[in-house]
Amino acid sequence: xxxxxxxxxxxxxxxxxxGLVGLVVFAHAYGEVHAxxxxxxDDVTVTSCRMDExxxxxxxxxxxxxxxxxxxxxxxHLVFRDRAAGSGKDAxxxxxxxxxxxxxxxxxxxxxxxxxxxVPGPPECEVAEVTFRSTAGAATVSPRxxxxxx
Length: 150
Known about the structure:
- There is one protein chain.
- This protein is α+β, with helices and mostly antiparallel strands.
- The chain folds into two domains: 1-29; 40-134, Immunoglobulin-like.
- The protein contains one helix and six strands.
- Residues 138-144 have low confidence and may be disordered.
- The protein has one helix at residues 2-33, and strands at 44-51, 58-65, 72-82, 92-103, 108-114, 123-134.
- The chain starts with a helix and ends in a 16-residue tail after the last strand.
């Protein structure tokens, strides 16, 4: 009976150690694979946020510098708020979406986005979400010429 208990205990200990080693190896491999990963959000900057004097609507300056591995389309969702109203629901001054199609790798584009609603106080412009879709076509490969009989 004692031998059986020692054997079962040893098997449980070996399984626990193997599981821990497996977890450490997975964590290391996961970190290595994702070390240089970039998110589309990292490529977008709100460069300015001001109020249009005539319409009193917020105006955001947005710059996108593509650091993606291939050309693609960026969709940027912006949220506008009235900073004087605080951060609650009453502060919302609308949302807008900016779409920049087929931006080349390393290219920079700047645009101006006007909020949909007027704000009484100073505006706040914020990037809520960014998505990226590659527009790079598949590489065209010419078929190899078949060997011809000469």
